[in-house]
Predict the 3D structure of the following.
Amino acid sequence: MPHRVRTDTTGPVARITLDDPDRLNAVDAEMLDALADAVGRLGADPAVRAIAVAGAGRGFCAGANLGGGADEGADEVASRVDTSTLDAAVRAVRAIVDCPVPTVALVHGVAAGVGVSVALACDYVLVSDVGSFVLAFARIGLMPDGGATALVAASIGRARAMRMALTGEKVDGATAADWGLASECVAAAAFDERATALLDQLAASAPEAARLTAAAVNAASLDLEPAFEREDSGQTRLLGTDDFREGVAAFLDKRPARFGGSRP
């Protein structure tokens, strides 16, 4: 498994950590595939009764890794961004949603872009009061993916999902819990203690009852496969636009984007 995805098991509780703190755990296809593999492996282990998904350092997951090297221009960065990361995100989200043991997202810092999808795919989202959620796709001329169009709307409703997706507004931890984007918000000083207690509680639950409960709630509230198809079609189209290339250039230059409305 790539060193940027780490797994640890203590008794019946397993923890999967996205481990690239210098980039706020921004992900690529390799990391997302490793996450999916880890969820599948741990979910199939009869000794594991609860799984935490966390991020190392200050952030949970800053979304897809767009950071170019020092000698890379915007066109070079944009040219290597393709649907492989989207495909891997879909695989990771499916693995988490279908996991037969309870999953908990530990959002102690920022969850952005596909990081929001990874968090909301979990059965329980614990956020710190210094944590936050942001769908920043519009800032680079893209649309939410990784199932976010379904996961966010299922959590907070159409109006607030539109607000997040179209404006790129950052939603703080307390607001996220108030809206229903997170299950619970906890003060940063008490976050680790609460996470441990919650995971222990879930690990002590009746395994088959927990599995069937999560599956029933997901079946009643999520329609992920059509969302995946729409996102794949839309994102593939958007990746070919001048607006996406301008969005990447603005991101690298740390300036507002100047979108022209071009079509591929």
The longest helix spans residues 29-43. Strands lie at 5-10, 13-18, 50-55, 103-107, 110-112, 124-128, 132-134, 170-172, 184-186. The longest strand covers residues 5-10.
